[in-house]
Structures are given as structure tokens and as C-alpha cells.
Design brief:
- 8% of the residues lie in helices and 33% in strands.
- By secondary structure, the chain is mostly beta strands.
- It has a domain of 168 residues.
- Strand 23 and strand 24 form a beta hairpin.
- The longest helix has 16 residues.
Length: 334
């Protein structure tokens, strides 16, 4: 009997060791959390207002040993809303997250028409660290005489943005738009994310950052901006495995440190359909496929959740190329 139990335990261990390998996520969740849903009232979601959820979860997540996660559904074509994150008590284990529901990545569109202050955004955080924003499409359409932002983070640490599409952004006023700004000592990692511009005055800067060492930009795409990156001081960040393509200006002022990234001057032509919003890699994208640097100490998934690497090495950009099977898959709302 003892021998039989021992054999059973050994078989169980072997099954675990030989099981599927799951990617380390670029979209980490709290160790334990309360989950709420966002969408339309008719669909029976817990919240129809992002700000109402934020207000209700301004709690002591760290003390309660439970984070707060808002899972969003595309019950409407888009949501004309903004949300200001702040004052919950968090730590690196128990924090707050706003994400698209699994299976609806980038189908949830937050598209704000609200006027902005100079230190604000569609989604913005002036105090709370460890906040996560995953798999949403964030846009705005305004007529505002200040530079408006999709994302604005000030004074908060360890912000995580992953799997998102930021833009296109529209400001009928010539003041212009910014995809994301880090300010006042904020630090962030941005992974598997597209900053999608239009080359008009609307698309002023994809990223503006003033924090030394504040930004880790990983496997992301900066496409069709007047200026892709503006570091207001030197040494503001690092761009690893990123693609800067078809921008009028790659950088303004100080750029990031570049690690195995494709630059504006490289004339990249490896996206499936960039103009149509499809930033997956074509099989002929030789500049990107197997040309990246491994970041496996941090994450091992691409924007679809597929495991990196596929093949000899990591790919550059949001997509880890693999041969497509089946029909066309719409991954981004145009």
C-alpha cells in the first residue's frame, strides 16, 4: 500500500512537471481580490460608471489583504467617461486594476468628450501606486485649448499598462493630444501596447515623461505621431523590443535608451495592416521576428496572451509571430 501511494505521488509530480507551460503575465492581478463588473445597466453589470467604482473601492486594500479588480465589458460601442484613481491604500500584492473581460481584449472603448485640466487625462492617477490598466482601448474627442491626454500619471510608482491601444485621439483645438504623460516622479511599465496616432496636430506626442529612469517601454508600438517620445530631461526611460514607425519625428528633446528596437528610419513594413489597426507581424517581418531581447524575468506573453518566444528568440513589437490558423480575427476596434 505504501509503495502504491509512493508511485501515485511520483506520477502526480511528473504530470505537474510535464504539463503545459503558461506565460508569466504582463497583466498581474492582486494575490487576492474582489471583482466587480462594468458595462451597461441592461446587461446586469455592477457598475455603469468607472468613477463610481473608484469611489467605492477607495479602501485599505493592503490592510484587508484584498485588491480590487474592475472587469469591463463592451456592452456599448464606447463609453464617454473618465476616471481619477487615488487614495486607496495599496501595496505590491494588493492593488487596484481596471481591465477588459477575458475574451473582449481591446473591444472595450473608453472615448471621452470631457474637457480636461492641464494635469488630468481620460484615465489618470495622481497618488496611487501599483495601479494596473489592461487590454482597454482609450480615446478622446474634444475641443480643448490645453494639451489633452489619454493617460496621465503623477507622483505614483509602479504603474502597469499592458495590452492597451491608446488612440487615435482628436482635439479640434490646435493645442493637440498626448497619449501618456508621466509627471512628478511617476514610474511605469508599458508593455504590449499600441500608441496609435494620425499624424495630424492631434497626435502631438505619444509619450511625454519627465522622471529620470521612470519609464520601461516594452514590446510596444508607436505609430503615426508628430513626435513619438519626449523626455523633458535626459535618461527618462528605456525602449526595449519596441517599434517606432511612420512618425513625423521619432523623438523631441531627449529620447529613451534603445534596446533591440526598430527605429523610425528603418522603414518598417512588417505589420499586417497598420492603417487598419492590425499591428500583428507578417511572416516577412524579418526586422522583428526573432530579433528581440528576452524579458522573461518580467513577462513572457504577447498582446494576445501567447507565450514568448515562439521560435529562436523574442520578436520585436506587441506580437510574437506564429503562423495564423482559421479565419481573420478582429483584435482591435477601429
Amino acid at each position: 500500500m505504501k509503495r502504491a501511494r509512493l508511485i501515485f505521488r511520483l506520477l502526480a509530480v511528473l504530470l505537474v512537471l510535464s504539463g503545459p507551460v503558461y506565460p508569466a503575465s504582463s497583466r498581474p492581478l492582486p494575490l487576492a481580490y474582489n471583482e466587480s463588473t462594468f458595462g451597461s445597466a441592461g446587461a446586469g453589470r455592477n457598475y455603469t460608471s468607472l468613477q463610481a467604482w473608484e469611489n467605492d473601492t477607495d479602501v485599505n486594500c493592503a490592510g484587508n489583504s484584498r485588491g480590487e479588480v474592475l472587469t469591463c465589458y463592451p456592452d456599448e460601442v464606447s463609453y464617454d467617461q473618465t476616471v481619477a484613481i487615488g487614495i486607496a491604500t495599496v501595496n505590491s500584492s494588493y492593488f487596484r486594476v481596471i481591465r477588459a473581460a477575458p475574451g473582449f481584449e481591446r473591444r472595450v472603448v473608453i472615448d471621452s468628450a470631457a474637457s480636461q485640466d492641464t494635469q488630468a487625462g481620460v484615465i489618470w492617477d495622481a497618488t496611487e501606486s501599483n495601479f494596473g490598466l489592461y487590454d482597454l482601448t482609450v480615446r478622446l474627442h474634444v475641443n480643448d485649448d490645453v494639451v489633452v491626454k489619454a493617460l496621465f500619471f503623477s507622483g505614483c510608482q509602479n504603474i502597469r499598462v499592458a495590452g492597451c491601444v491608446i488612440g487615435p485621439l482628436v482635439n479640434a483645438n490646435s493645442a493637440g493630444c498626448v497619449g501618456m504623460q508621466l509627471y512628478g516622479g511617476a514610474t511605469a511599465s508599458v508593455t504590449n501596447t499600441v500608441f496609435r496616432g494620425s499624424l495630424g496636430t492631434d497626435s502631438l506626442y505619444a509619450i511625454v515623461t519627465s522622471t529620470t529612469g521612470g519609464l520601461s517601454l516594452n514590446n510596444s508600438v508607436i505609430y503615426k505621431w508628430a513626435n513619438g517620445y519626449w523626455g523633458t530631461v535626459a535618461g527618462t526611460g528605456t525602449a526595449t523590443n519596441c517599434i517606432f514607425d511612420d512618425n513625423s519625428g521619432e523623438t523631441w528633446g531627449n529620447g529613451p535608451s534603445w534596446v533591440t528596437s526598430i527605429r523610425n528610419a528603418d522603414g518598417f513594413n512588417g505589420f499586417v495592416d497598420a492603417a487598419g489597426g492590425d499591428f500583428r507581424l507578417k511572416s516577412t517581418a524579418a526586422l522583428a521576428i526573432d530579433q528581440g531581447t528576452s524579458l522573461s524575468g518580467t513577462f513572457t506573453d504577447d498582446f494576445e496572451g501567447d507565450v514568448r518566444p515562439y521560435g529562436a528568440a523574442w520578436d520585436i513589437g506587441i506580437d510574437e509571430y506564429r503562423p495564423q490558423t482559421g479565419g481573420a480575427w478582429v483584435w482591435c476596434v477601429n
